[in-house]
Amino acid sequence: GTRALTSFSCCRAPAGGIHLRPFLKCSDSEPRSAAEAPRDSWGKLYRFTEVFFCYRCGPMVLDALIKIKNELDSTLTFRRSCREGICGSCAMNIAGGNTLACTKRIDPDLGKITKIYPLPHMYVVKDLVPDLSNFYAQYKSIEPYLKKKDESKQGKEQYLQSIEDRQKLDGLYECILCACCSTSCPSYWWNGDKYLGPAVLMQAYRWMIDSRDDYTEERLAQLQDPFSLYRCHTIMNCTRTCPKGLNPGKAIAEIKKMMATYKEKAAAA
């Protein structure tokens, strides 16, 4: 009566991460309780050796994390919400790259261990939960909303734009602020207190080119210091890692071109 079932094991990593290992195991028994899991060399941290039957677990890494939390260790902490790549809550470092746990499939390679950690170079609140306070403060600083110099019509009529102007926002507005790109950027690692990072800069560009916004020059002036914009060295990790397939690196390059024109205009005035 035994059956070969594709499964995976996991362990809590020293830095708050999780290791998933797919393997084949012949078993017709249910997993042991978490209380029976042996302790490892890290002392108080459990190393789980339970068998997870994949027909009872979804194909995504988030499914595995939810199963671990529900059945093995209720203290395991991570963010998640939509489970379909829309909210950005479950961003984490999986198998060496920043991505969303809800859209990242469990590696079927039976010889590999999938290592899961919080987003890199961020203060960790607990386990897989990074502190995004600075990231959100930077996003707030760019005033990510329409600003009009004539406020007499505010709230009284729609601000219309042409189809062509609307299309300019494609590839920008889809950003879900998951922070995968910013936390993959070495420049942001070392200058995160001053450099706005690719996610926030792409959002700044989104408002700069919106035909309905009247504060493009003021938005550019805000980025003139040596760090806010110019710490970008076109490493392009941001574009490679974006789970939505966006191109923050290109948006930053466009801001730099706009900045050059803005400075020339200011110098000639």
TrEMBL record:
Q: Which domain of life is it from?
A: Eukaryota
Cofactors per UniProt? [4Fe-4S] cluster; [3Fe-4S] cluster; [2Fe-2S] cluster
Name the enzyme's class: oxidoreductase
Any single GO molecular-function term of the entry would be: succinate dehydrogenase (quinone) activity
Q: What positions does the domain 4Fe-4S ferredoxin-type occupy?
A: 165-195
- GO biological process annotations for this chain's record? respiratory electron transport chain; tricarboxylic acid cycle
Task: Tell me how this protein sits in the membrane.
Answer: Peripheral membrane protein
Pathway(s) where this gene product acts: Carbohydrate metabolism; tricarboxylic acid cycle; fumarate from succinate (eukaryal route): step 1/1
In which compartments does the protein localize? Mitochondrion inner membrane
EC numbers: 1.3.5.1
Question: What InterPro entries would the database entry show?
Answer: 2Fe-2S_ferredoxin-like_sf (IPR036010), 2Fe2S_fd_BS (IPR006058), 4Fe4S_Fe-S-bd (IPR017896), 4Fe4S_Fe_S_CS (IPR017900), Beta-grasp_dom_sf (IPR012675), Helical_ferredxn (IPR009051), SDH/FRD_Iron-Sulfur (IPR050573), Succ_DH/fum_Rdtase_Fe-S (IPR004489)
GO cellular component terms attached to this protein's record: mitochondrial inner membrane; nucleoplasm; plasma membrane; respiratory chain complex II (succinate dehydrogenase)
Is Plastid one of the keywords UniProt gives this record? Answer: no
Q: Does the keyword Hydrolase apply?
A: no
Q: List keywords of the entry alphabetically.
A: 2Fe-2S, 3Fe-4S, 4Fe-4S, Iron, Iron-sulfur, Metal-binding, Oxidoreductase, Tricarboxylic acid cycle
Q: Give the UniProt family note.
A: Belongs to the succinate dehydrogenase/fumarate reductase iron-sulfur protein family.
Q: What is this protein called?
A: succinate dehydrogenase
Q: Which organism is it from?
A: Anas platyrhynchos platyrhynchos
